[in-house]
Every structure is written in structure tokens, then in C-alpha cells.
Prior knowledge:
Blueprint: H1 25-34, E1 49-50, H2 62-68, H3 79-92, E2 96-100, H4 103-114, E3 120-123, H5 128-136, E4 140-143, H6 164-174, E5 182-185, H7 198-211, E6 215-218, H8 222-232, H9 241-250, E7 254-258, E8 269-273, H10 276-289, H11 300-312, H12 316-335, E9 348-352, H13 353-356, H14 366-378, E10 380-381, E11 383-385, H15 387-390, E12 405-409, H16 417-432, E13 440-444, E14 455-458
Parallel strand pairs: 1-10, 3-4, 5-6, 6-7
Antiparallel strand pairs: 2-8, 7-8, 9-12, 11-12, 13-14
Amino acid sequence: xATTERTLAEPYRIKTxxxxxxxxxxxxxxxxxxAGYNTFLLPSKLCYIDxxxxxxxxxxxxxxxxxxxxxxxxxxxxxxFDLLKxxxxxxxxxxxxxxxxxxxxxxxxxxxxxxxxxxxxPGNMYFTTTRFHQEQAGATFHDVxxxxxxxxxxxxxxxxxVDLAKFQKLIDDVGAENIAYINVALTxxxxxxxxxxxxxxxxxxxxxxxxxxxxxxxxxxxxENAFFIQEREEGYADTSxxxxxxxxxxxxxxxxxxxxxxxxVNIGGFLAMRDEDILVKARELVVVYEGMPSYxxxxxxxxxxxxxxxxxxxxxxxxxxxxxQVRFLGELLREAGxxxxxxxxxxxxxxxxxxxxPHIPQDQYPAQALAAELFVESGVRSMERGNxxxxxxxxxxNRNPALELVRLTIPRRVYTDRHMEIVARAVIDxxxxxxxxxxxxxxxxxxxLRFFTSRFEPIA
Length: 460
């Protein structure tokens, strides 16, 4: 394995450790069979290096833990909510916030508020739970991301950009009055963690203003998006990530936030908005589905940790190390000839499973098979992001997305570069014997969000 130089050390010191244990291959073979070849169903204690997700798996700082002890657990009017509200307004620029138990709760609320049956929601590539809530509310989702995002090998600095021509065509075809809102993800997860440029955000804002369309954001990884703008977009090299975060959000009417990512907490999320009418409706619904508008299904200690974390996540030194560690793993794989999505994204390295396993047709779920085999080979848990995640269309057929990927997702402030080297070695070794991997077929398939609980078996 080639050695990729890393000169940037972790911008923190470790004061608490959690032991992990390597299992035997026999134990892992048994475990993956019992899990139905679905890495979501594996016990975490059997995962040597757990790269399933960066959602809720971050290590919290000493300051966050200190604030946890100061959580106000009053049922209504807790000071911990005031702390979160102040942080959201100061760092993100939104005057109103409604907490939810996680980002999924926020997706549900805004879909119920803004969507009426028969309307349309364009977005820069789908995300699984977001699209589910939009479709459940009666909308039709439209992918308006640039074409380059669907090509894993295409080098483009902002593959998450909205294709303005696609957006305009949708407006012309269905009418602006029938577009509930446009949802712009920062960054785009299923494209490989790809960012959106400030120039593109401004252009989408102008189109929304010209047509009276609400501009919303899935801002789950907004800090990582800001880092890429600082690194790649002209005019931002000397601008702090915190300033870029605030500017990019200034163009949006509101956002859904999964605090479990760029707020560096284990649970929590929120809606933030500028429109008081949306705030009133969100407060009405959050009482039904989540809890009081001042806690939204969270304890006061969770609100405190999230308020601290969203500030910490915009720190330049933290982001340089965060994105740098992901890039370190990606470069090790790329140097060894492993097919990955390029450019390397901000939260994960995505293996191109279609290229990795060209002998397995997409309807035999090569990404799912690769994720399962990687666990058996090494104890590294990853996640499928391809045909299984895309689900079925209205006629019951697999959607067969252009990207068939396995996501190696790096938790924030958890693993060292030595862990990344071990992951790279495991993937490289598996690549050398990839011809031995076979496809899978369903033995249990739920009607929605099937990737969470489906079960499979190998095709003989």
C-alpha cells in the first residue's frame, strides 16, 4: 500500500478511550448470516471499525459534556432552548428555531407544512428519508442536480450544484405555483459528499425570487460545504468557514438540520426559518409528533450539547482535520487503484461498487454484497448506497440509480489515521479477490426505506 503523507495532526487531545475488539472471521461470517447480509442489522460490538454512518457517532468535546450537566430539564420554558436559539441565530442567521428529536423529525414537519398533494419538490439529488417524507405528503420529487454528479469518476469542484436549466424546465412544465419548495442539500450525501458553490446558491436564490418559490436547505453538513467553498471557490480563500456558513445560509428561507452530523451530537435536530407563519405551523405540529416547541423530543442536556457543537463545527482547524482525514483514506485507496467517487467528499469515501464488482448486475445489489463482504473480511462496517437505498418506483421496479456505492463514513473526532490505514488495507486486500464475491437476493423487503431492515441471502 502506498503511503500518503499526513502532516496535520488531530486538533485535540484524547482523554477518554473506548476499547474495541477484533473478532475472528468465523464469528463475522456467522454474524453477517444472522444479520441477513445487512450491515445495519449487525451488533456494534462485533464491528472493529464502525464506518456505518457519521450520524450521531461523533465524539463530543469537554465543553459539550460540561454543558450536558447544565441542561435545564423543565418541561416548558427551559433555558437550554434559549441557548440553542441564540446559537442558531448567531451562527446560522435564522431568528426562529423548532427542535426535533433528529433531522428526520424536521423533514416530516416541513413536508407537512409546505407540501400539498400533487405538488412538486426539486432537489439536488434525493436523500432517502427526505424523499420519503416528501412523497408521503403527496409531492413528486425531481432530481435537478448537474449531470456530472451521476458520474463517479468525473472531476468537478462542485458536483452538488443545482442544474439551473433543469430547475427552469420543471418550472416551465408544472408552473411555479405547483412547486412546494426547492430543497438544496449542503453537501450532497448520495453524490459522494459533494459540495454546492456559493455562486450556484446565489443563482438558485435569484430563480426562486423571480418565480416566488421557497428555497429550503437540507443543511446537515453545511460546515463541510463551507470548507470546500473556502478551498475551491474564488474569493473565499481568506474567509473563515464560520463566515462562509453564515453567508451560504443567508440565501435560504429555512433549513432542516440533523444535529447528529455538523452539530457534533449523538441525538437531535431542528427546523430553522425566517417566516413567522412557518414557525407557528411548526410549533403546532411539533406538539403532536415530537414534544413541546421548546424541546422537540430532546432533553435539555441535548439542546445544550447541540448549541455548543454547532459552534465548534465551524472552526477552521477542526474542519481542516475532519475533511483531511476523509481525504487521507480516499487517497490511500485511489493510489492503490480502488475505484472511488471523485473528488473525495467531506464526510465519507464512497467505493464505486459497480466498477469494483462489474460481474454482479445491479438487480443483484453489488453495493450491498460488497458492504457485507468487507465486514466479513475485516470487521469494518460500511453502508450500501445504491439500488437498495434507492427503493422501488410506483410500479414496483427497482429505481436502479446511476451510482451504485458503498459508503465508508468517518465519525467525527473518533478514529485516528492509523484506523484509516487499516480500513484502506482491508479494502485493497478485498479488491484483489473481488471475483469471489457473489450477488444477493431479498428474503425480506419492507415497503419503505428498505435499506434499514431488509434481509438478503447470497445467490448461488
